[in-house]
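chain below, 485 aa
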Amino acid sequence: MKYMDKSIKEIHEVLKNGEVKSKELIEESLEKSKEVQEKCNAFVTILEDAKEVPVTDDLLSGIPYGIKDNYSTKGILSTGSSNTLKDYVPFFTATAIENLESHGAVATNKTVLDEFGMGGTGTTGHTGIVKNPWDTTRMCAGSSAGSACAVAAGVYPYATGSDTGDSIRKPAAYCGIVGYKPTYGMISRYGLFPFASSLDHCGVLARSVEDASIVVDAMKGIDKNDMTSWDSKDIHLYDSLTGDVKGKKVCTIKEISNPSMYPNASSELKEHLENFQKALEHFKELGVEVEEVSVDSKLLNALASVYVVISCAEATSNMSNLTGIVFGPRANADNYIDMMKKYRTEGFSPLIKRRFVIGSYVLQAENKERYFHNAQRVRRLLVDRWKEIFKSFDAVILPVGSGPAKHLDNSEDILDENTGVLEEHLQIGNFGGFPSITIPDGFVSGLPVGLNITGNCYDDVNVLNLAYALESSMPYKNQVAKEEK
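prediction:
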């Protein structure tokens, strides 16, 4: 019998009653890892020597999971999916991973990401393209592509991810699973390779809201090594899932989710928005008030530019230590300047180099006010607008992206000219550090699509309970990918 496509609680129950042993689960996960690797290229490293652990009353004990390869793992290759760190083996483990290990979790692989998390396609990792398990001609999105692929394919019930713009939540939508990014600082970032420190969040990809809450309960906690972490010991996500949402108020954003905003919508976008409207009806049946609010289009249209400027600027600074002298394979040259230049020129992908060029440009003294400081100001305007919304509403609910997973060769993708904000709005959750979760809400062209629920900082319990109640009203919980091709 197979177990890795079941929920955490179901697996824990069969472990406790002796129906299966942790060792057998590890073997199943490793076997499935090899199958998925051949089909989808989801992993940097498969941990063949993964060891079983004692099964306790802890729900995660003895159960396999995956680690995104930008989490530092002591003695285990940790590449960030970059050639510049292709042989890097850290001497310490990220706090979030240590926390999972303390609960008895067993890692069976490290998953592929877009290089250093800087991408939304799952196609820029140094080991190659990650393919969607529902349809291998399509992408998983990124950067947590390998984690999303593996969870959707049934390699294990959950995997860690990181989210700087939408890197947990959009792959979750494309792969028909749940992606949860808690409030900024709930999970320590110590040991997570930094991309943009003010935007980076640790989180989880799972197949249900319940499983996501169980995992983040284990990952979270204040950490002396991360000054942005905060004490969440009195927050119990899993225990707070009641499904009672009667009287809650959520809103949609007219300029993002109203079908009238897309006069030239493709058939896939139309169907996606119809699924979203059906989900809103489910909310209403649960006793949730749903209203539509309006946000200045000029502000929304600035989203993508603000994200590029701030994230590239922070990435340029954070990754200045990647010189080939301290980390990674040294380049051969006559002097240290040429050594660093050669290392960075040959080691980074074109996408990363472009982002570093942008980051350096916007931080130059003559450009800083016009680009970087103005981007920070617009970020504040966006965050203030969302906080104003949260004074009246428990959460904002919006569709994720403009439809199902995009084709890897882009040959058949037709995007409406107005869908830019629809594709980018998840970045607001990073700008404000807001708790944000994506859940599946149906299928378009035989492929999964999702919606997102975002709430105010520290209101994770409320956000998760809304998602839990809505998920329970729809038939898309605990989905495992079944490719029709």
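DSSP finds 16 helices and 13 strands in the chain. The longest strand covers residues 436-444.
thats it, cya
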